[in-house]
Amino acid sequence: MSVSSLRFDPNRHLWLVYPIAFVAVLIANGALVYFALSSWPGLAYDNAFERGRKYNQVLREEDRESRLGWRLEARYEAATARSGVLIVRAVDREGRPLVDLGVAAALIRPVGGGVADRAVELRAEAPGVYAATIDVPLPGQWEARLTAIDATGERVHEAYRFVVR
């Protein structure tokens, strides 16, 4: 056996490059298709088309809320690994506390696809301060979509993101 017979000859084995490359591309594409079909669908809203059609209404509502001048300032204080207290401070345009509001929060995990979402009612703790103990089933980033409504029906919405470790 000579040394020349053990040496790799690119011309003799070039035909193997194309099928190997083709198989590698097929495997990579197959893996991407599998992960795309088996993971989160990417929909943020179930009725995205209807939401888009009513966008002018959403803009009018945001304009009305900004003229009202209410602000909802939220914070999350962790108590244990998966529970804590959501505290919301409601103030008017001049910074005075808003009392006798109904304050609710829809807790949404942005990447969860709606599986772990929940709603909580906040109770009045002090003038303009509302709180609720919340338990979340999964760690990660959460969004509290807050709604405050008074006795006359005036309402404001605010979103607050927090992380549960």
Structure description:
The chain is an alpha+beta fold and 165 residues long. It folds into two domains: 3-38; 48-164, Immunoglobulin-like (Sandwich). 30% of the residues lie in helices and 36% in strands. It has five helices and seven strands. It has helices spanning 3-6, 10-13, 17-38, 48-53, 55-68, and strands at 71-78, 83-91, 102-108, 118-126, 129-135, 140-149, 155-164. The chain has a seven-stranded antiparallel beta sheet with strand order 1-2-5-4-3-6-7. A hairpin with a 5-residue loop joins β6 and β7 (155-164). The longest helix is centred in the N-terminal third of the chain and has 22 residues, at 17-38. The termini are far apart. The model has no long low-confidence stretch (mean pLDDT 89).
Short description:
The protein is an alpha+beta fold.
Write the layout of secondary structure elements.
Elements: H1 3-6, H2 10-13, H3 17-38, H4 48-53, H5 55-68, E1 71-78, E2 83-91, E3 102-108, E4 118-126, E5 129-135, E6 140-149, E7 155-164
